[in-house]
Amino acid sequence: MTDENGRPGDDALDVAGLQRRLAQFAEARGWGPYHTPKNLAVALSVEAAELVEIFQWLTPEQSARVMDEEESADRVRDEVADVLAYLLQFCEVLGVDALAALSAKIDRNEIRFPAP
After folding, report:
1. What is the pLDDT of residues 54-104, one digit of tens each?
2. pTM for this structure?
3. I need a surface site. Which of 22, 53, 55, 93 has the fewest CB within 10 A?
4. What gap in Å lies between CA 19 and CA 12, rounded to an integer?
5. Is 113 helix (H, G, I), strand (E, B) or coil?
6. What is the DSSP string of 10-76?
7. pLDDT tens-digit series, residues 8-25
8. Distance from first CA to last CA of the chain, Å, rounded?
């Protein structure tokens, strides 16, 4: 999964590659029994709330500049990573193709909400 310099290989940055890495990470630590759909959905909700917390008391203008400061940018990136990790693990456990689900949802929304 990594190249000779310890960086992720090309296949690690696609959805399936990331899901494999997450599954291997959890398996190596014996976390599989805890990765039920319910537990992963709850963890996803908690991580999404932690992302929201960063923006909780910011004005719209401050929130638009949150990536300007390294400390807040790091926090945002970490929480985005946590949300995505739990979503990918959730999809893996239930056999949901996240990209196909998103594409189908966009198709439905284009019909539901036609452009003026």
Report:
1. 999 999 999 999 999 999 999 999 999 999 999 999 999 999 999 999 999
2. 0.85
3. 53
4. 9
5. coil
6. GGGGSHHHHHHHHHHHHHHTT-GGG--HHHHHHHHHHHHHHHHHHHTT--HHHHHTGGGSHHHHHHH
7. 555 568 999 999 999 999
8. 46
